[in-house]
Amino acid sequence: PSSQSAFTPLSSFLFFHRTTFPTAKYLNTQIASMVQYELEGNTFIISNKVYPYANLAQWGSDGRDMGTIDGQSTYDQLWILREDLKIKGFYTINNFTYVGSRVAKWGAGDRDTGNFEGIHLNDQLWKFEPHGSEENHYTITNYTYPKARMAKWGA
């Protein structure tokens, strides 16, 4: 895992590969056109637009055990989106391997993002807004920190 991978409120855009899951034997699968109703409950590999082989991954249960990995896709790079029951249009990003773990933004700082297990808080909610005319490209914005966008930094 790259310790230089993290998130920042600077703009960078991510795209998704929708996986045909549970038959995720081949994790690099079809790319599907996504609209809001397709996000709920589906499983995705989240990659950066500029670094398309750098997949978001979680490699442990500590809050900092998350970043991007460049290489062969594995199950810890699968993310399930769940729409919040109260705040429509915002989703939790749940890791497939570490059940109960969600991506959270617990402060305004660049490095105040990681994985979290425990009670559900609004800082774990993310909005997926289509970016331009490119299919499967989204800007991912945090509910609690609306200027914070998910992005990759570091090589």
- Spatial order of strands in the largest sheet: 6-5-2-1-10-9
H/E element sequence:
EHEEEEEEEEE
The count of strands amounts to 10
Helix content: under 10%
Strand content: 25-35%
Q: Tally the helices.
A: 1
Strand-pairing-aware structural class: mainly beta
**Silhouette:** globular
List the helices and strands and how they pair.
Layout: E1 14-18, H1 36-39, E2 43-48, E3 54-58, E4 66-70, E5 78-83, E6 91-95, E7 102-105, E8 113-116, E9 126-130, E10 137-142
Write a structural description.
The protein is mainly beta and 155 residues long. The protein has one helix and ten strands. It has a six-stranded antiparallel sheet, with no helix packed on it. It has a two-stranded antiparallel ribbon with strand order 3-4. The longest helix has 4 residues. The N terminus is likely disordered.
Features:
single chain; 155 residues; mainly beta; six-stranded antiparallel sheet; two-stranded antiparallel ribbon; 1 helix; globular
Give the gist of this structure.
This protein is mainly β and 155 residues long. It is built from 1 helix and 10 strands; from the N terminus they run βαβββββββββ.
